[in-house]
Structure formats: C-alpha cells, structure tokens
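Key idea: predict the complex, not the pieces.
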Amino acid sequence: MKLKRRDFMKVISVAGVGAGLLPKDYLFSSPTLSVPNGMKGKWMSTVCQGCTTWCPAQAYVINGRVIKVRGNPHSKANHGKVCPKAHLAIQQMYDPDRIKVPLKRTNPKKGRNEDPKFIPISWDEAINTIADKMLELRKREVPERFAVLRGRYSYMRDVLYGAVPKILGSPNGISHSAICAEAEKFASFYTEGYWDYNDYDLEHTKYVLSWGADPLSSNRMIPHAISIWGKVRDQAKIAVVDPRLSSTAAKADHWLPIVPGQDGALALAIAYTILTEGLWSKEFVGVFKDGKNLFVKDREIDETQFEEKHTHGVIKWWNLDLKNKTPEWAEKKCGISADLIKKIAIDFALAAPRAISWVSPGASMQVRGGYGAMAAHALNGLVGSIDNKGGVVQKKSPPVNKTPKYSKYQDELAKKHSKLKKIDQRGSKAFPAMKKKPGKGVVTNNVADAILESKPYPLEMAIGYWNNFAYSCSGAERWERALTKLPFFVHITTNAAEMTQFADIVLPAAFHMFEKWSFVKQKQNLHGYAGITQKIVEPFWDVKMDETEIPYMIAKKLADKGFSNLLDYYKNEFKDPETNKVPETEKEFALSALKFYTHPLWNGSAASKGDKITSWKEFQKLGVWNTKRYTYKTKWDHFKTETKKFEFYSETLKKNLNLHAEKHSTTVDDILKTCKYTSFGELAFIPHYEEPYRWGDEKEFPLIFSEHRSRLNREGRSQNTSWYYAHKNCDPGDENWDDVIKLHPKTAKVHNLKNGDKVRVTSPTGSLECTLKEWEGIRPGVAIKCFGQGHWAYGSLASANYKKKIPRGGSNNHILPADYERLSGSTARHGGVTRVKIEKIV
Amino acid sequence: MTKYAMIIDLNRCVGCGGCDIACKSENNVPDNFHWADHEVETYGKFPDVKYRHIPKLCNHCDNAPCVRVCPTKAMHKKDDGITMHDPKKCIGCKSCVLACPYEAVMYNDKVPFKQWNNKSELIKGGTASPKELKDKSKVPFPNYNPERSLTSMGVREKGVVEKCTFCDHRVGQNKLPFCVESCPASARIFGDIKDVTSQVSKLKGKYELKVRKLEKGTRPNVFYIREYYRV
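Result:
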C-alpha cells in the first residue's frame, strides 16, 4: 500500500551514544523551586467510575479543591495509570449546572415539552414527601408498585437498591445491567459456566482477536490495555473485527471491517479452519483415536472416534453445523475475504494457547447475537486458551462482607409482596432472560413498556439513581411516555438529566469520585481488586450520597412515621466494625456501612488472598486492595457448566431452555421462534449461524447503522464538560465540537451527501440530526456514529438549548429501536440492529 | 549543562489524548487552544486504511524562531534548553505566533476563563451559576492550579501569548512534566539529553529519531520514534 505522507516528519540521523551504559530515569539536579505552604497539595486515593473499568485513582487536592487526577500507584490492575476519561471527572464535579439543593416539581403536567417548574425545597420536605408516598403504598397493601431503578452503582448498591424495596415490600430493585452487555455474558456462561466479563492475559499473549472490542478506548480494562499495548504489539499479532477503524484497529495488524452482525459467520469459519487444518488444542479438546484428522468438509464424524478431554461436544458441533462453514461460505456473509479468514484462523491457532478471542458487546448485543458471541468465545475453547497463560481467564474476587439478610426486617406484607413478579416481565415467554437460570436476568429497557401496559401491575412510584433511562435506553421515546405516566418519580442525580425532567422530587447527589464513600470490585491485568471512593473534598453544595445517606434519611423518616424496619436494619447491621458504634446520622451511616463491607480487606484477614492491610487508616491511604495474581488452569474440568467441561454443545443452555419451555408449556423451538431466532432443534444448544435481525426495509432504509463508544465518554455523563468536545477527535474519524455520522466517501457519493452536510438520520422508529463525515475508515454501506451526544437536557453545554430542550448533536437512542437479545434479556443495540436513511437538511 | 528533551514513542502511543487533557488541568489552559495537542491523519483506501495520531507540543527548539522574532525578549531560552515565555514582558504583537512553524504559540484574543463570570443559572435557585461556583472556590475557576504560578502567571491575560513550558514549574521541583506523568501508555520520555545515562539518551541511541518539519532548521527537542501504525 502506498501511503500519502504529508510533510510532517522527516528523519534526522543522530549518532548513537555508547551502548552498555546503565539506563537512568530522568534525574535533575537538586530542586530549584519550593512550593509555599498555602499552595501545597496532597494526592488522595479514590476510584474513577467514568466507565466500568473502575480504576483506582488519586486526586491532587489543594485547599479543599481537586486540581488534577492520576492513577493510583498502589493498584496492580492499572499500574498507576488512568485513561483520559478520569481527567474529565474534575469538570464533572465542578459543573456549574449541577443541582445544588433538593427540588420539587410545581407543574403537575409531565412530558418533554412541559417545563417542570422546579423550585428549591429543604431536604426535610423532600424526604417527608417521599416517605409519605411509600407508606401510602403499604397502607393500600400494594408496596410492589414501588421500584428502585438503578443505573451506574458502587457495591454500596444493596443498601438502597436491595434493602429499600425488599423491606418496604416490593420485588422491584431494577438494575441497568441489561442495557449494558448481558449478551456478552451469555457467551461465556453457556460455554464455560461463567456469568461475568472475562479478563485477558495481555502480558503473555501472542495473538489478540477482537470482536468489536476497542480496549484502548472503552470497557473494561482501558488503562491496563493502553499501558501494555506497546508490548503486545512487540510480541503479538492483533486482528480487530469492526466495521469502523476503531482506535484499537488503528493499532492492529489486521482490520477486519465486517458487515455488522455477521460476526457469527466469521467465527464459525475460523473454527472450521482450525479444525480442518488440525490446529485445535490436543491438550484441551482431545484427539482422534487413530490419530488421523477426520475434520473434512461436509463429512460427519462418529463421536466414538474422538477422545475428548476438557471439553464437551466438539464432534456434535462439527456434525450439526461446522462441517460446511467454510471461509468461502463466510466471505459472502461477513464481507471478509476467505483468504484472510484462513490466515487469521491459522495464525490465531498457531499462537495458541497464548491467543485471545475477545468478545464484546459489539459482537453480542444483536437480536440474534447470542449464538454468534458463543461461537467467537468458543474459539478460546478450541485452541485451549481458556483459563490459560496468555489467553482468556475468569476473575478473582476480593473477599468483602456480604449484604446482611433482609428477612428479619420484613413484616408479613413485605415478605409476601416482595416475592411477586418483577415489573420488567423477566421470565415471561418472550423474555427468558436466562442468567444462571431462566427468568433470573433483568430486562431493564422493557420496564418502560411494562409501565405503559401496567403489566404485570401498575407502577406508582419509583426512585431512580445515577441513571438516565430516558436518554440511555434505545427506544428512548417510550421512556418519556412511561415516565409521563408514572404518578410519582424521585430522581437522585448530579445533573438535571432527561429523566429528571419527569421527576416530582429531585435529590442532588454527591459526585462519586470525590464526594462519596463507597467501594467497587473489578479486575484488570489478572488481579481482582477492591477500591474505595472517598469523600476527599467537602462539596460546595447541599448534596447527599445516593446509596447510603439518602436511604438512611428515608429510613429515619419512615421510622418517625411508625415504620422503623428499614432504620432498624441499617442501625443493627451496619455498625462501625472498629468501634461497634451504631450509626445515628446519615453521615455516620455512609462511612460505617463502607467500613462494614470492606472490613475483611483491612483487618488483615484477607492477607492470604492478596494485600495485607491492617487498619482502616492504612486502607484509606492506599485506596485499593489487590488480589494475588490469577492462577491458570484451575478451572479445567471444574467449569460451572452441567458437564464441568467447556461446552461446545451446551448442556447448560439445553437445560435452561427446556426449563423455560416447560414453564410456558411449550417447546424450545417455540421459545426460540418467540425470541426471533431462526434455527431450531439441536442447533439451539450449539454456537451456530443466525442471519442478523435488522429493523427496516432495505429499499427505504438503505444503510446499516452501527454505533461505537468514545474514549471520552463517561458513559453518558461527560457531555456537559468542555474538555469532552475540545478533544473529541481523539476518537478516530470524529471531529472536535461536533457530532458526526461517518460514511465511506463512496457511500456518501451514492447518496448525494458530502462532508459537513447537516443531515437527518431516520430509522423505522425515530430520527436524529447531526453532521455528515466522509471517512475512509468505514465499511461502505454502513453508517457509523458515536454514542454519547444528543442530550436535550443535562446541562447548558450538553444540550444546544436546555430551556427549549434542543439536543446538541443526536442521540443514537432516538433511532435505535427497543429490541432485545431475549435469551439473555440484553438490549440489542449493535450488530446493525436497524437500517437508516440519511438526508441532507436543506 | 542540562538540556531537556522529550521523546514520543509512537508505537506505544494509542492516541488517547490523556496528555492533552492532563496538560489543561496542570497549566490552567483555556478551552480554545491546547498547549499539548495532536494531529490525526488517515491514509490509503478501504479496506487498506492506516490512521495515525501524532501528539504535538512546543518543540523547545535550539534555534527557536519565536525567540528570534520577539521584540521584548518575553520569549527566551532558559539555560536548560526550555523555551520560556514571560507574559509580563509580552506586548501581544504575535510575531512569535506567526514565526512558529508548529502553531505551538497561542494568542489570548479574549479574557481566559471569562465564562466563569457568567451569572445565569440553568434552574433558578436549583443550580449554581458559573460565577457562584467560582466565588465559592475563591480562585479564578474551581480547579485552578496555583502551582502553575510558581514560575509564570497562573492564568494568562487577554492580549498575551502562551505555550507549553515543558512544565518548568514541575521540573524545578524534580517532577516530570504532567503530560509525561499522565501518559497511560508511557509513550512520553523526558529527560536531560546531554546526560548519556538518561532514558532519552538511551532511546536516542537505539531508534531512528524523527522531528517535525526538519527543513525549517529549528532543531527541535521533541523527537519521535517508531511508527503509530504497523508498517
């Protein structure tokens, strides 16, 4: 390829210095500057929750103000590094548009075009109103009509999201998890019995095959990935499957610009090639008894001829589906040449077991994405890289205290009603939402429809915290209608978000990173860890902590009114483990609850599993407790699947699908049909090909829509910071201070569009407006846009006009339909789930 | 004699912009320009497309055109090689802005951080105004870094220029420039290029060095090694 190089850099030759000299870190002569006392700062430990990497971080504090941030040097997970998102947290905390006092709505009419006419009220009035509403539901013996809608969270979450509904008498603690990436967990659960996100041994890997994963920009180990990518490039090959040249694809050996949603075809052809070329792991998968490779195109194999070792069903998988999934077949589906597919497959397998097949939301959150994601994850099984050095591993968890049981504090009403069906319709025929068992997963986005349909019952009151479903859920307009219908809504939030516009009471939240006590658990670099967010500065405003202080205040008010169960629970179960003191105020409670949960980490008892920390004071200073490094191969033959093996033929999935079918007195085939899948019979239990489901007719909506994340997105919450827009072109293809939809120049030409055009993007369910960008790094025929902008509320910068509710850019959730990968309950927003048309706005 | 230099390893750089943003927080740089910045370039035709992100900053040139043209010596070379600017001597003639081939000198054509004097509230009585927040914080803006004022103005004024100083206020405290400390990829290496044992010297011996716009004869002290994309 010929590169057109601008006159940017020219080489100068510089004579080398003598070799053999010891390297020396930068070192200066003695310091020449001293810092006056009033200017002296201190680095204090906390955690960044801008994305779910949840990095141990530190903030530099001078005179009660946060000046700058860095990674926590005590963290073994991120090596003391943070990605660019962490810096934006400063502007998020010092956002003048933050809500500074509790507010109440004075306009009873709700709707996007209604001004809520918020007026400031006292905390006492706000909490009093909330407590009255809660008790009224209990008095009418319908406490299930209350819900807590959780968005982002810390592991203090159960104090609010668990205890409040359960002790009041509602089953409805509803998490945001299904708008996150439950379909990705589907892939690992139904192969290796692990319902969680995997970790990846980048330090030792020799091949990274990414399925839409863009770890240099987004979830779930960004600073570790960034810090080690230079080493990975030196020692490994990298291939990135993505219709867009992502930041990771730009740093890879191969960019595989796939047709969105066709990941399954590519993964199956890679599996086919690995088997037919005889490159599967003999150690992990097994061997043919007579030593001859019987994986030959179109030829079925007698299962008895293969001696399978740590896996289950490889021959079944071959016979049922793989035997004709050739690269030539896949090329027509996925748009990647057969030759390149073969090369990727062979190189990947030759690098194994130090080879990573990295499944992401991009390759799984499709209506029919579950099986393709399984296929991509199963490649790790084929080459034996699961739970192996340089491969794909599970997690190590920090040993923290469990949330104390609620049952002692539930009266008869609460016991009975908290067992009712949850509002999100999980477990219904159309929503198997099979977490570890059918109906155990959450279907977050369906709550809007459940509210609108009053099914399984009407919802009358909800408390939402750290969430913004009217912005962050696909089919966002349904949430606007649902929240209009919801009689009483309390929003705990830092900013007047979209969801806030429908609130009756608004409670200002402390900013997690610098104003709040909490802890999180995560993993990177084969270390699990627990990090604490700390109240390291005194907030400028009258804000409270969402997960501890506010529920305590509610509990106190409920007790004043004669219902003391919640307060009893908080006081009895969350005593300060150092002093055994009962928390008497919300401030004391916030800290004592955190100390309660994390006690095993800092009383020295967890030393055998990781760091030895012997006092709360020391833990506060360090801010993080690290597990020991992950040990390989401990899961082999102990996977939490039905067979204890890595399952290519998933007995685990078979069991759950049958359970769900029996519950609804029907067949597995009928369930799959209801869930919009197209293959039946035995194919239901193996990774197999499914044509991607797309909304919209190709004639009317000629382009496939695809979206991606920004390396500056703090989920949807950094769009009121100027640094976000001033550096937006750090996302390849994007522009500073703009929101662009990217098209390949040839595609743009076909549709009479050009760079800089203001355009309307329309799907079958909605439209948005933004700017057109022609860019070579986009697959022709696909329209790609970053998620994150298009707020019509949230702040004066996030929106183009807050008062008039005019968005800045366009929100993808206005063109993405509300659809699901129903087996997992996951929202389906990737893999080209909708088609769009793009028109120039004249 | 010490001479500071920076090497940027493009193989390690992932184009995240962490350096650019960290610099903002360290040096109180307004939104409308960047001391630490980058250029992006896309080459080739689909599907053989290459992309690169090149961080850029003041090159602290040995033969600095900005210093040569400055009529008041506001722009000057320090003994340690840093190209320094004294805003008190600056008359805002912008000769340096025009002379610099790297667009690394920026002119304040408006009062920096003026937006913090805005008194409007999003929700009356419910949210703050920028002015209210500024007044509460008792500094020019809430995350203002006073350490920047150790060697220069904490916030520069309308009518003067400003640019990267290699974080001279940190280097003087035996600390690395904040972009170097903040780079999650460890792609920025800083040190004394005259000291043969320093990391920069070591890398200088190991890799081919590249500079921006060699033909301008400015003799930059910010060097680039390796390539952003796979060659």
